[in-house]
Amino acid sequence: MEGGYVNEAIISYSNPKLQIPLMASAVYAPTTTSISAAGTPTSATAATNASKNASASASLSSPPGPSSSAGSAPGSSAHAGGGPLQGFVAKLRSFRFDDTKNIRKRFHFDYISKDRFLGGQLKTKNGQKYVFNGPPSGFYVSKACLIISAFVAVVALLFTIAITYFVTRQGLNPKEVTPNCITADHPDVNATPIQTAGWVSLNSPPPAPLATPTPTPTGTTLATSTRGEPLPSSAKPETKMLVPQVGDIPVEVEESSTNKSNQSTKPTSRPLKLYEGWRPLHYSLLIEPNAEKSVSNGSLTIEIERDVSEVTSWEPIVLDVHNVSISNVRVIRATPDKAINATEEQELDFDSDYGDDNTTFVINLEKALAEESQLKLLLSLDFVSQVTDTLQGVYKTSYTNPDTKKEEWMISTQFSPIDARRAFPCFDRPDMKANFSISIVRSTMYKMSLSNMPKSHSSSYRRGYVRDDFVTTPKMPTYLVAFIVSNMVDSQYAALDREISPRVEIWTRPTFVGMTHYAYKMVRKFLPYYEDYFGVKNKLPKIDLVSVPDFGFGAMENWGLITFRDSALLVPEDLELASSSEHMQYVAQIIAHELAHQWFGNLVTPKWWDDLWLKEGFACYMSYKALEHAHPEFQIMDTLTTLEFKESMEHDADNTTHAISFDVQTTSDVRRIFDPISYSKGTILLSMLNSIVGDEAFRSATRDLLKRFAYDNMDRDDLWAILTHHGHEQGTLPMDLSVKQIMDSWITQPGYPVVNVERRGSDLVLRQERYLLPSRNPEDHSRWFIPITFETDALRKGDNIPSHWMRSQDDEELVVSNVFGQGSNPENVIYLNLNRQGYYRVNYDMTSWLALKKNFSSLPRITRAQLLDDALHLSQAEYLTYDIPLTFLMELFDAVDDELLWSAAKPGLNYLINNLKREPAFETFRAFMKFIVRPAFEHYGLNEPDNESHLQLKHRALVAYFACKFNYDRCTQSAQIKFREWMRNPKKNPIKPNLKSVIYCTSLAEGSSPEWYFAYRQYKTTTSASEKEEILTSLGCTTKPWLLSKYLNMTINPTSGILKQDGALAFRAVASNAIGHEIAFDFLQGNIKEIADYYGDGFSTLSEMIKSLTIYMNKDYHKHQLLELAATCRKLGLRAVESAIDLAIEQVNNNIYWRSHSYHSLKNFLEGIVSEFQINIF
Ligand SMILES: [Zn+2]
Asked: Alpha-carbon distance 688 to 918, whole Å?
């Protein structure tokens, strides 16, 4: 007797389709009536339906008979209207696939960790303290040891000060010395050799005089005469090693937050100045990253040439740095012929110093050289930089070795977008491409190192240390440089497929080698596809893929060395741990994305970050194409029209959005653009371009671009010109149009349009306006150049190439004549934006909406999904009243198999759930949705047969997600039964991979501490990264406040086992729970400083947390809460977070507006429907 649903008995789920047309028509009739009341002539439709529906309506109105309980579990009525649904709200924004998509697109940047230097100690994840200069596994430090260490450090410091003083007095002009850092701009001091690559700090006493180091000639490795030889056995690096004082590394100076007015919550961030006049040609980098001491020592030689293409004036050489100290600077003239002849080198005089805020290092050469426009130099220097623990720059992370049970450290890098400057001084911008010869010094405790290119040579460096030299890279930007030092193992694929080029290998911890097969299979499918599509062979001889234990990104496309978080690469094949279809699709897509970057991004790179969307959009769009090729059964191009549109339109809907290309001037700007606008909108715009010029022209243009700009940079105008050429050549693009004309309106304006459709006699009249939340705004005059495609009953086009254009400069309307013919029937359909190839929504006149509703089942699959999604979102912004989307939602009742329609419903439904969840109308809404969802759940249930298709598996999970979310008790009870079965035998999980997300969350929401602790134990013991993510999300589903609070506290406790990469995920799981939301807000407000310190006060984790708080905020006092939080952040100097709060406030404003304008009308419509069909609300 599940909730007393009306006439459940007549719905024979063994063949639901026999019954469903009756129901669908019955639903349609009263809705039509309500529309008629608004004055639209619909009598013909109503009459038609009335007779058809007579029998159905009669049976629908009959009270539930005893047999109606056939589909319900015993005792279900007691449960149906109660609280168990609560926990599911936590899944609204955290359905697993969406999560991974979000992680892929949101990044952890710009942390400035405050806990790295602990006075010679290091805290590991389990809270133990280790000495810096011990072996990686470390020793517990006793108090005595601490005292001795401190004493040694103090003595060394005093000695260093004395030496520095001595050097300063002897060799430097005092005015040239920069406080707290070692500059070396005097020839005498420059020549003072300091052993750099071993841990002899810049503060250390200088070693016995050695020969003056010879600057490294171009194309060779660094001066091995002084650095490549092992230290004499008497030299024990361990005893000499000292941790540099924090003050030695210049920290960038930020503007004091107290200067700001109280009203201003805009972050002030550091400008990204572009310095012209010089270009790097070749970097020779020797670096010794040290996880134990959290520093890298290194030396660097950059071959530089004067570049007068931008400026002809005499400019200083400006290197980007971030917390890097520099010493031993030398500048040598390098004429092309003599560069490798050290005997003919000519040292040049110069001044050098750190620039403003210590974010640059500036070298001024003598003005006399200004006459030489062809000047080439070798700039050599030594440096000390930080090894961070905030997943950026060169960073360290650790994992437990399953054999020794000890913590093992590893070094990884993340230089994109602007963190190469944290690792070594460089020209850190994408258009400054150069060759890189990289050498890494590692302790023999680490068995391997990797970099972009294959290893050319390994040699003993000094006792206990090995130097690995790598082949010189092709020309590439700094953000693609990468290296790894670790004890990871390879999966032996390169050895097995010895003949195949490029060599592909996957590296991971020994435990996970068995989880790499799927990834390897995908790489081998995608590479030939790309080589064929692009018409360009993969350029590098090898590609290593590495799973990094803690990784802020989903993955990073470093050329030849792609890094991943575990869950983005590893797919367990063991049945117990098997991944869901969603997860496998995610892994395949992220691999396809990163491989596409090897061409687009790496081989050809956008000039500046304002065109980031081009490389990201291309990689995303190509990943869809590659996946369609490799897995046609995924129907992945359909997914693009729901998933990418959802991601993009959600972020592009109000005034806080930005144009996809905007003037990137600051560090905040460059980090901010890594958002769904760049990725998803970029994907959609490229897909739209593909449809405008056709497949052939698009592919030819891509090939041309890659050939013409290989190893170089391009901007969007280059792409537009090539696309225009091929579009004209293929005859797909009208000769009077250029791609630039079309695309400028999409690139330079924020937001997206709604095309309003009106029938006027036999003509079609189209108008455009901006889609804007919280409500349409006639004052906004944004206009776009819109490709128009449409079909009618009489006209089926069969392709996506536009037949008409709404030109942005056109006046109010576009009239397409004679579309409907004479005496057209209002029931004839018209629908626009075929296959959703254009980035816009379509709003029809009422006649057209009704015709579409009436003929819904015969419309193309994507059009049906599009109509439902558009209708829900048009109502959200008051373009439509809610009766329209509600009637389209009812189609789900019939379309139990239409997985695309169900996917399309998800974003709009989630918005309604979030905004109704804490309102009285939720009861009616839930009843209505249970009514709609029930047939599909009865059809699919929670039992997953073997050998189902990928789409069916995904669809079953989605249906279950809605059924349990709307508290359909057959779903919630089945979920709990399965979960308890697992609890009885934790070693054997009976839950099928695709249903884990729903079943875990439901069971934790319905359960209490035993379920929660069981899940947490499983989190700690499972070896599957995707399983860990499932459980992390589920832990936020509990409805027990104390558990939610405990969970939040665990996110800032390193011993909890929750990685920093997952902090935002865990927080979101709680914040998106209707009960957890306020607990999450309290936690954030009370611990903001601690959270900022733990995760770094950068842009990502905290901002993600704040964003997820807004889900349930729809009242004025919520806005005040956020303003108070902003004030706290301002006091703490967390300016990037203030910016996230600004965005959050705008979101809350939208919610408040919706509540005051749309809530009541939606409530009335829902009550009307529930009453009409006598749907029991319990
Ligand atoms: Zn990318």
From this structure: 39
Pairwise CA distance, residues 888 & 528, whole Å: 43
- Enclosing H/E stretch for 407: strand 407-414
- Quick one: pLDDT band at residue 337, thresholds 50, 70, 90? low
Nearest to 863 by CA among 789, 807, 801: 789
Residue (of 413, 512, 592, 402) closest to 1027 by Cα position? 512
Fill in the DSSP letter of residue 1057.
-
pLDDT digits (tens, 9 = 90+) for 918-971: 999 999 999 999 999 999 999 999 988 878 888 999 999 999 999 999 999 999
Q: Whole-model pTM? A: 0.78
784/833 Cα distance (integer angstroms) = 15
Selected catalytic residue, list 292, 303, 594, 1172: 594
Q: Is 606 helix (H, G, I), strand (E, B) or coil?
A: strand
Query: Are the C-beta atoms of 183 and 352 separated by less than 8 Å?
Result: yes
Distance of CA 323 to the CA centre of its chain: 26
Token reading at 985: 């035998």
Confidence grade of residue 123 (pLDDT, cut at 50, 70, 90): very low
Task: Determine the Cα–Cα distance for residues 967 and 5; give it in Å rounded to an integer.
Answer: 13
Instruction: Single out the residue of 598, 573, 579 nearest to residue 504, CA to CA.
Output: 598
CA angle 5, 11, 12 (to 5 degrees): 135
CA of 403 to the centre of ligand 1 (A): 35
C-alpha to C-alpha distance for 680 and 649, rounded to whole angstroms? 9
Annotation says 594 is catalytic? yes
Q: What share of the chain is helix, strand, coil (3-state, %, to 5)?
A: 50, 15, 35
What number of other Cβ atoms are within 10 A of residue 773's Cβ? Answer: 25
Report how far residue 838's alpha carbon sits from residue 980's, in angstroms, rounded to the nearest whole number: 48
For residue 150, the tally of other CB atoms under 10 A from its CB is 12
The CA R_g of the chain, rounded to the nearest whole Å, is: 32
Relative to beta strand 790-792, strand 830-832 is antiparallel
Q: Is 50 exceeded by the pLDDT of residue 32?
A: no
How many angstroms does the Cα of residue 593 sit away from the middle of ligand 1? 6
CA of 551 to the centre of ligand 1 (A): 15
Write the single-letter amino acid at 238. E
If you average pLDDT over residues 1113-1121, what whole number do you get?
Answer: 93
How many Å lie between the centroid of ligand 1 and the Cα of residue 556? 7
